[in-house]
Design a protein that fits this description.
It is built from 20 helices and 25 strands. The chain is of the alpha/beta class. A hairpin with a 2-residue loop joins strand 18 and strand 19. About 40% of the residues lie in helices and about 20% in strands. The two termini are about 30 Å apart. The protein folds into 3 domains: about 300 residues, Rossmann fold (3-Layer(aba) Sandwich), CATH 3.40.50.620; about 130 residues, Isoleucyl-tRNA Synthetase, domain 2, CATH 3.90.740; about 170 residues, Isoleucyl-tRNA Synthetase, Domain 1 (Orthogonal Bundle), CATH 1.10.730.10. It is an enzyme of class 6 (ligase). Its EC number is 6.1.1.9. This is Valine--tRNA ligase.
């Protein structure tokens, strides 16, 4: 045991104490004292992507969750905190290709070899992540470690797919999708980022004798137009029903039907819209209503195809757009050219331009289909009811409105991805016929080579980690989980989908409370990025200041849902605080040596008053913890220990500690000792290492680890 007489140095204690916790087995709930009589408390860790090291945002997640778990364990709960990592198919495969500077095409006939290479890369990253989680002091049950791509989770994914498919909630076919031209895969609506930039709006006619002008920001897509839509009662209504043949639009022959549709705003722009069914989801819906043909003119690489002109093979946005505009000018068909602000859709992971393309063999989850076994509710209804019924509480409450707004605008969820790393969709096709099976149904059937959207597997996380689809003891005891803690930025990607999947597959909620934290920003409030050079590596902070200091820096002044400005100076201040705890504890223990802890002591009036004060602190901090005001509890404990206990109470007690009056001296000793014990327990969830290190010095009989001491009562 390190020398208590020396100043506190986190490096002397943290690794040693964590090993001591591991050796105790108390991270596993079944090993806790009196485990059979304890009420269960469960939390699952949001699984970090196995793309590389943890960043400071992960450190915040771990800090908040470990505080909650340690508090609940000290309340006497049978606490289970499940660790795991996410294979994050698109993100991991993209990172692997970038780091290795290779292309998936290099392995076109060696898919299994490629997957093995990516998986090795992922598992090496996983090892690093697990070490970082331990360094943060995470009291996770490592015996239940899960990976979204392991065999148990695979069986859960396949069972979920089968059950949803059999229930008619998953459908298949050729549909318009968001296509990432760089990552070469479909992505969901939520995985698109919009970059606001200046662009041009072009107003033109297809030909000199075409009666209606239209406007577009993408003239190259007009090579695939099949109709012009106008409002049924708008100024162009007299042309509805006509079909006009355009012999030469930039070298392409077009057949344009003029249709009436209520979706068209007659007051916006020219009051008419060119319909490109293959490259716009809205246009695709209009085309289906009016039984219009689909004409694809852009491929997966963003290049023009099937026009039979010199445009074919050229990049639509960079080359063909300018050339089509030049043609319009030359033919005097361009009526107006305006500079406007517009949004460019890009894939969140790869940064690639998003094109809307028709793709075959796509699987979608139908969010609007009534489910007989769920009383006719749709998946949207299930997601909404979980919160409106107050079965799930969202903290902060303001995110409820955002959650409901997202549900109201939710479209069917495309779960097919054209990456190789991930859970392969267990399905086969012959022409338009589909069979769901892990094994080949025989000759003539072609395997679907797509993988599942990674959110499909992580959407099962609360119950797949507890053994589902098997009816395990874990599942019965620990589900639904008590709280989900995560960043507000993935409420739609992950949180809502867990509610969706659990609602259908288990007819239950996945968690009772959602605690949403904000982003960690630099001292100037800027988002952290490599380009700005302001990223904070949690391991460097731990090495410099200690884990406890980093944890306090992340939690104090950080209410749920708000972004946090973090600086070195803030973390450094809590390094000094850890040393203050150490020094104050050393003083108290040195001056209470020989105190008979078994003997009842009558406290002097002044000491009794301080005892009541510390009990009030316990009540106040406990209330904050119950309300998830962790930031307030941490700040109160910091100020009370430093500015009241160390600076005032200890200083004012010193003369009485030297008193020749035995009763006065013993009263002061008892007060200081008990106040220290209370504060060590209260501080432990926030600063587990320094408090456990001090606890080792406490001269109590039959003493166990501080992490399993009972939370004090006020």
């Amino acid at each position: 045991m390190p020398d208590f007489s020396r100043p506190y140095n986190a490096k002397d204690h943290e690794e040693r104490i964590y090993a001591k916790w591991l050796e105790s087995g108390y991270f596993t709930p079944e090993n806790l004292p009196n485990a059979d009589t304890r009420e269960p408390f469960t939390i699952i860790m949001p699984p970090p992507n196995v793309t590389g090291n943890l960043h400071i945002g992960h450190a915040l997640t771990v800090t908040i969750e470990d505080i909650i778990v340690r508090y609940q364990r000290m309340l006497g709960k049978k606490t289970l905190w499940i660790p795991g990592t996410d294979h994050a198919s698109i993100a991991t495969e993209t990172k692997f290709l970038k780091e290795k500077k290779i292309s998936r095409n290099d392995y076109i006939n060696k898919r299994d070899e490629f997957i093995e290479l990516v998986n090795d890369f992922a598992l090496k990253n996983q090892e690093v992540i697990l070490k970082q989680l331990r360094a943060m002091g995470s009291s996770l049950d490592w015996s239940r470690l899960a990976f979204t791509l392991d065999e148990k989770r695979k069986q859960a994914v396949y069972m979920a797919f089968r059950r949803m498919y059999d229930a008619g909630l998953i459908y298949h076919g050729e549909y318009l999708v968001n296509w990432d031209t760089k990552g070469q895969t479909t992505v969901s609506d939520d995985e698109i980022e919009y970059e606001t930039t200046q662009g041009k709006l072009y107003t033109f006619k297809y030909s000199k004798d075409f009666p209606i002008p239209i406007a577009t920001t993408r003239p190259e897509t007009k090579l695939g137009d099949v109709a012009v839509a106008v409002h049924p009662s708008g100024k162009w209504k007299k042309y509805i029903g006509e079909k006009i043949e355009i012999e030469n639009f930039a070298g392409v022959k077009l057949s344009i039907a003029i249709i009436g549709d209520e979706m068209v705003d007659p007051e916006f722009g020219t009051g008419a819209v060119g319909i490109t069914p293959a490259h716009s989801k809205i246009d695709g819906e209009i085309a289906r209503r009016h039984h219009l043909p689909t004409k694809q003119v852009i491929n997966e690489y963003g290049k023009i195809i099937k026009t039979g002109t010199d445009w074919d093979g050229k990049t639509g946005i960079k080359e063909v757009r300018e050339e089509v505009v030049e043609w319009l000018k030359k033919e005097k068909l361009l009526e107006k050219e305006e500079i406007i602000e517009h949004n460019i859709a890009k894939a969140q992971r790869s940064g690639g331009i998003i094109e809307i393309l028709p793709k075959r063999h796509q699987f979608f989850v139908n969010v609007n289909k009534p489910i007989p076994e769920r009383d006719g509710k749709t998946l949207k209804d299930i997601m909404r009811a979980a919160v409106t019924s107050e079965k799930i509480k969202i903290i902060p409450e303001r995110f409820e409105k955002i959650y409901f707004n997202w549900i109201d605008n939710l479209r069917d969820w495309n779960i097919s991805r054209q990456v190789w790393y991930g859970h392969k969709i267990p399905a086969w096709y012959k022409e338009e016929e589909i069979i769901v099976s892990e094994k080949s149904p025989g000759n003539g059937w072609n395997e679907i080579n797509d993988t599942f959207d990674t959110w499909f597997s992580s959407g099962l996380w609360t119950f797949s980690t507890l053994g589902w689809p098997n009816k395990t003891e874990d599942l019965q005891l620990y589900h639904p989980t008590d709280i989900l803690e995560t960043g507000y930025d993935i409420i739609f990607f992950w949180v809502a989908r867990m509610i969706l999947m659990t609602g259908f597959l288990l007819d239950d909620i996945p968690f009772k409370t959602i605690y949403l934290h904000g982003l960690v920003r630099d001292a100037k409030g800027r988002k952290m990025s490599k380009s700005l050079g302001n990223s904070i590596d949690p391991l460097i902070m731990i090495d410099t200041y200690g884990t406890d200091a980093l944890r306090m820096g992340l939690i104090v002044g950080n209410p749920p849902g708000n972004d946090l400005a973090l600086s070195d100076d803030k973390v450094k201040a809590y390094k000094h605080f850890a040393n203050k705890i150490w020094n104050a504890a050393r003083f108290v223990l040195a001056n209470t040596e020989g105190l008979d802890l078994e003997k009842e002591t009558r406290l002097e009036r002044e000491d009794a008053k301080i005892q009541e004060q510390t009990k009030a602190l316990v009540a106040e901090v406990t209330q904050d913890m119950e309300q998830f005001h962790l930031y307030l509890a941490a700040e109160k404990l910091y100020h009370y220990f430093w500015h009241t206990f160390a600076d005032i109470i200890i200083e004012e007690a010193k003369p009485r500690l030297r008193s020749e009056n035995a009763e006065e001296k013993i009263s002061a000793q008892r007060m200081l000792y008990e106040a220290l014990i209370l504060q060590l327990k209260l501080l432990h969830p926030f600063m587990p290492f320094v408090t456990e290190a001090v606890w080792e010095q406490i001269p109590q009989k039959n003493k166990t680890l501080l992490m399993v001491e009972l939370w004090p009562h006020s």
